[in-house]
Amino acid sequence: MIVVSDTSPLANLILIGKLDLLEVLFGEILVPTAVHSEILKLKPLGHDISSYEKAAWIKIRDAGNQTKAEELMQHLDEGESEAIALALEIRCNLILMDERLGTKIARTEGLTTIGLIGVLLLAKQKNIIPALKPILAELKTKAGFWLGASFLEQILNDAGEG
What we know:
The protein contains ten helices and five strands, in the order E-H-H-E-H-H-E-H-H-E-H-E-H-H-H. By secondary structure, the chain is mainly alpha-helical. The strands form two sheets. The chain has a three-stranded parallel beta sheet with strand order 1-4-5.
C-alpha cells in the first residue's frame, strides 16, 4: 500500500508518542518535503521528534509536479498542497489528512483520504490499540487536538466504547 501523509496526523501522533501506529497499519509512509519541514519545526518548540527522526519507514519525497502543488497553494498550505501533488503523482492508495478543505480537494482529485480519527478507529478495529478513549484524551491534553462533544461521542460509539 502506498500512503502519503500531511502534517497533522504525523505531528499529533508524534506529540502523544504513538507514531509507530502508522508503521504497524501501513508499513511505509511517504512525506513530501514541505510536510517534513513542518514536522521539524516542532523540535525548536521543545517537542521530542526523535521517533520521527529515527523512523526508517518514513520516506521524504519531493513532489515532482510543482505546477500542481503551486496551483493547490491558491487554496491550501504548502504541506497539504505538496501532499496532494505527490499523492497524485505516485498514484497512492491513501492520503493521511485532517484539514477539511484539503480533504475535500484531495477527494475531488480522486484520492482516498483518512484523517487521524479514522487511523485510530482502524487501529482499534485491527486490535492494534485496546481502547480509543485514552488516546483521544492524550490528543486533547498533549497535542491540543479538539473534538466536539457530539463528534467525540459518535467516535467512541463507533469504537464500541460509548
